[in-house]
Amino acid sequence: MADSASSFVVCVRNPKGADFGTSLGPSRYLEVPSTEATPRPDHATRFTSWIAAVRERARSHADDARDIVLFVHGYDTSAAEALVRQRLLERELGDRGYPAVVLGFTWPTEGNKLAYLADRDDAFRSAPAFITAAIEPFLRSLDPSCRSNVHLVAHSSAPTTFG
Questions:
Q1: How far apart are CA 160 and CA 107, in angstroms?
Q2: CA nearest neighbour of 30 among 121, 97, 103
Q3: Coil/strand/helix, residue 96
Q4: What is the CA radius of gyration of the chain?
């Protein structure tokens, strides 16, 4: 089980050894402990466990339920850098009086600033997974009594993942 400050990530990158590579792979639900700087395939958990942990975190706010923010990174972003940005967004929102649970969606990028067009193609090919692995299961799992709002933040070429 992940620690109370774990990061929640939906990953559609193909595993490459103990890390994630730059090609499209099967969808995985990751709980990345706060002590880990890089999402890895061994952080994968079943969707039911993952969404239960997300719900628990959303309910854990003292005053009211936390909102949920789905963050989709832009081009030229490694899985590790996407996690850094996800955690920064969550911390900055909390520091400004807006405690939220930020969920990351990480899709394959080439890891090269000169590969913008290739990354756009990767984003486009990741769009179905964004819908089937992130949006649909998440919306189906919402509890009607949940008071959390759901927001979407997409950076750079990330809107391409929306089809």
A1: 11
A2: 103
A3: coil
A4: 15
Q: Are strands 150-154 and 100-106 parallel, antiparallel or unpaired?
A: unpaired
Instruction: Indicate the pairing of strand 67-72 with strand 100-106.
Output: parallel
Could you tell me if 50 and 41 are in contact, meaning their C-beta atoms sit under 8 angstroms apart? no
Distance CA 134, CA 40 (A): 18
Q: What is the pLDDT along the chain (163 residues), one digit of tens a residue?
A: 445 689 999 999 999 989 998 889 999 999 999 999 999 999 999 999 999 999 888 887 656 667 889 999 888 889 999 999 999 999 999 999 988 999 999 988 877 788 788 878 888 888 888 888 888 888 888 777 767 788 888 877 656 555 5
Bridge partners (DSSP) listed for residue 9: 30, 104
- Residue 63's SS3 state is coil
Reported pTM: 0.87
